[in-house]
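If you are new to this repository, start here. Below is one unmodified record pulled from the training split, so you can see the exact layout before writing a loader.
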Amino acid sequence: MAKKGGRMIGWLAAVACIVVIAWLITPLAPQLLGRATRRVSTQEKIVALTFDDGPSADWTPAVLELLARHDVPATFFLVGSRAADNPALAQQIWYAGHQVGNHSWSHTPLIGKSVAVVRQEIEKTDVFLRALGYTHELYFRAPWGFKLLILPWILSRLGKKHILFDVVTWDWSCPGAAVITQSAVKAVRPGSIILLHDGGGDRSQTVQATEEIIVQLKNQGYRFVTVAQLLTYDVRA
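And here is the target side for that same chain:
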């Protein structure tokens, strides 16, 4: 009986460890090494729109057009290989006054990868964007927001800021423009970072929702800034 009880305790401990590790990988869990920014601590009604997984020839131009029409800056976390497929479009993003970040080269989850692979995913994208002419600081956002130990350690060694998000719109699942809009508007607080996508699939709902998010948040008195601008308001900095 004691032996069976010991096995049960061991099994429960193993399950608990797996659950904790699985949770720590997620973007909303604390980062074990270094700091990941999900929002900034401020009373100012400012918010950052961020777009992942582009550039996409199908959807990024539409996003850029509506941002220009509403005079709203945003931050685009680019996948290096997709920027290589659309170099002129990648340049168009920062020529339009938006911020660009690094979203890895291949958009593969960087969990369970070697130090060499993770570092290459980051540095290859940095090198390519620099070669295209981007001169500002390149923040990083992990694919899927997944992180554990190796990625945060490498980011700290490279001196790179890890930017995540506190407002999840679920737009990648195409739940409908109204759902995307309400997911953003209901969750926003001063200093929020909103996650949206301009690549990786059909983003017609995201384009439609982004315009409504901008209109509704402006009506609530919010002002839109890039992530770099947002960080300057962080009272914890």
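Two things worth knowing about this chain: The two ends are 56 Å apart (CA to CA). Residues 1-30 form one domain.
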